[in-house]
Amino acid sequence: MESIRQQKVNKLIALELAELLRQESKGYFLGAFISVTGVRISPDLGFAKVYVSIMQEPLRKTVMELLTQHQSYIRKKLALKVGKQLRVVPELHFYIDDSLDYALHIDTLLKK
Asked: Alpha carbon of 22 to those of 33, 48, 74, 81, 98: distances in Å?
C-alpha cells in the first residue's frame, strides 16, 4: 500500500515527465508519441519505475533504448521542474506498458 506522499509524488512525476517527453520527443526520441501511463516510486522516494506507452510499434525498441540512454538527461530536466518540491529527484527506470496491446488482444479473442 502506497502512502499519500508516494501517491502525490507519483502524480507529480508523471505529469512533469509527460510534458518533458512531449517537448523532447522530436529531438531525442525520433518524434515518437510517448505517453507516461504510470509511475511507481519506492518508499524512500529514491527510485521510480516509469511506465511508458509508445504508439508506433516499429519504433518501440529503439525509443526504449533511447530512453535508457538519456536517463540522466531526463532526470536533470525533471530536477529543474520539480526541484523545489522534492529534496531528491528519484532515479528513473523506464518500462514499456503493454496493457493497451494486451487489452486489444483480449478484445479480438472475445470477438471470435
From this structure: 8, 19, 12, 14, 19
